[in-house]
Specification:
about 270 residues
Length: about 270
């Protein structure tokens, strides 16, 4: 298993280095290794510069490049969609929690206080306990379970007295059920990572495609270096995207807990 495939190492890198630093290492490193390999091969086998096998290499490079490009595009689109879905899940969970806080205003003071206490504990547990765990790839239900259970208990023990209270009561129950559902979806997303087969295809494919460019000979060394560096840079940048998008809760491009601090939930962070 390579360093980039190790889940704990990849999370550590994403959480301790900026995206710019990772870009310099991954993209820059890929280009340097590719250019260095091309120059060394050219020196060891000077006949490569004459381009005697360019026709065969060109066909092979074009075919493999097309297949590899489709695979990379599929992986990147999948990971980007996963990131957007995760952002939607987090926003929906926070919205439902905020609506419960608003619905609580329609109930008597003891019920309202009970719901406020439960939701206050819930949003703090999400941001202060669950989020750091999700960033390190170790999500847990435990931090929010007691608060969610308390909110359910408050509603289960209350019997609405008026038609107005009945309407808000049903809304509060529905929103609380949605919070529980979105919480499960959020934790599930925090545990997901790119399947091993796709990791091998994405990162391993680069180890095949880039060396193929070494065999496409050009008489001028500068042109050869420019060609190899361009292909390596494109592949390196694509691999960077795969790396930073694979974990939706880690790194600079990660989903943030900001929705749990905004709107009606802001009241739980003041004072």
């Amino acid at each position: 298993m390579s360093a980039l495939d190790s889940p704990h190492l990849s999370l550590w890198l994403l959480n301790h280095f900026s995206t710019f630093t990772l870009a310099v290492v991954i993209v820059g490193g890929t280009i340097l290794l590719a250019v260095g390999g091309s120059v060394l091969l050219r020196r060891k086998y000077p006949s490569v510069a004459r381009g005697e096998h360019n026709e065969m290499v060109g066909v092979t490079l074009g075919m493999f490049g097309a297949i590899y490009g489709i695979i990379l595009a599929f992986v990147i689109v999948t990971l980007w969609t996963q990131l957007e879905d995760t952002q939607t899940i987090v926003a929906s969970e926070a919205t439902d929690a905020a609506l419960i806080a608003r619905d609580a205003a329609a109930f008597p003071a003891p019920v309202r206080a009970g719901l406020d206490t439960a939701m206050n504990g819930y949003v703090h547990a999400v941001v202060e306990d669950q989020w750091p765990r999700m960033r390190t790839g170790d999500p847990s239900y435990g931090a929010t379970e007691s608060h969610l259970r308390s909110a359910f208990q408050v509603l289960q023990e209350y019997d609405p007295k008026s038609q107005s209270e009945q309407v808000f009561y049903e809304e509060a129950v529905n929103h609380l059920n949605d919070v529980a559902s979105q919480r499960r979806a959020r934790i599930t997303m925090a545990r997901q990572e790119l399947p091993s087969l796709l990791q091998v295809l994405a990162f391993g494919g680069a180890l095949v495609l880039i060396p193929l460019t070494f065999l496409y000979g050009m008489r001028k060394l500068r042109v050869q270096i420019l060609f190899v560096a361009s292909v390596a840079g494109l592949v390196g940048f694509s691999l960077l995207l795969v790396f930073v998008l694979d974990r939706p809760f880690a790194g600079e491009l990660s989903v943030t807990p900001a929705p749990f601090r905004e709107g009606a939930l802001a009241q739980y962070w003041t004072g």
